[in-house]
Amino acid sequence: MPGFYAYKLMKVFFRTIHLYLSLAAGVIIFCSCLTGTMLVFEKEIQQALNPQRYFVKPQDKRLPISALTAGVLKQIPKSKLATVTVYEDPERTVEVALIVPEKKDKKAVGAPKAEKHAGAHAKKDAKPKEAERSNLTAFVNPYTGQIVDQFNRRQTFLYSVEMFHRYLLGGKNSLGDWVISLSTLFFLLILITGVILWWPKTKVIMKQRLKIKWGGSGKRLTHDLHIVTGFYTSIFLIIISASGLVMTFKWANSTLFFLTNSKVVAKEDIKTPLSVYQSGVTAISPEAAIGALDSKITDAENFTIRYPKDTAAVYTFNVLKKGSVELATDTYYIDQYSGKIAGSALYANKSLGQRIRGVIKPIHTGSIYGWPTQVLAFLITLVSLIFPVTGVMMWLNRTSKKKKKQVRSRSKVLPVEVA
Question: Disordered: where is this region (predicted)?
Fold first, then answer.
């Protein structure tokens, strides 16, 4: 008997947590799942709607990258070169990311607000990090040098959807950011408590909780849709929500590195090698820098070049090998004077924590293994939309049932008049 009461108290405890966290964050969780579903196939949607932007007819000879970038900078005034992405697919356009001055009265959705109080030693002309991010992509025909299209993702509907998904349109460190972050944490706790509440005491009950009784009453169907589908999707939703927490909270990121027995490496701790300055020597072209990598580039699905910012900087190459997981890139640094490899950061040589952290975003979005995991992520997030709805329906049914019981109990204790 003591064990029975302990089990019952445990169920009441977890059911209370499950209920109140769901009531507190149910609407936000529903919106996050809905917007997440819309973002799973963003790249594929863009390519399907704008094929001329991404694909061209292959020709015999490609133009040098330096010629392509020079043409882009000439055609788009006041633009500053950020990166160049080249694909192994001969039909793909070259993507030239640019930094273009924006009007002050037109702020991008989700852009962080400038800090009111600068440090005592801050420079007056210092620019926020957001100003150094590319805000325009020119898609260039690698055979003719023609700009086939210009694309500013910040002005698209799906970008607004992403900003709603991440910050409720409020921007980094805004109230919306914290609401989404806490709701994601609540969602993880809801999923864990849901699995605990689902766990049956007997094999007979387990069989009932593994299938939906489609011919049952409306209440039974609502119950089964919530319980059964919740169990089958829980492990995937736990992974999705946990990966979201890692990208949001420092403690979650530190927990990942702790569990993998890895050292946390902050971005500011990563030291980029420098070029050995040679007076009177002209910096090498990007083609020469590519030549220094040889087979490391020819075996790539795509690679992105970041040009040296000053006379001491290096060419930075992010190379994605064929068959590799998205964002599992190798980084190479090329001396802009000698053309030699000044350093590298290979994905395979990183710690387990760094390797997992490097692909957390593809895990969260479902793009980690291409379309199979994208379809899975789409279906899981789509199905998850029923949980807030069925959960509220179950709560209302349970509440009305309790009220009816209270009314019946009161009617039984009413005194009977004696004639």
Answer: 108-132
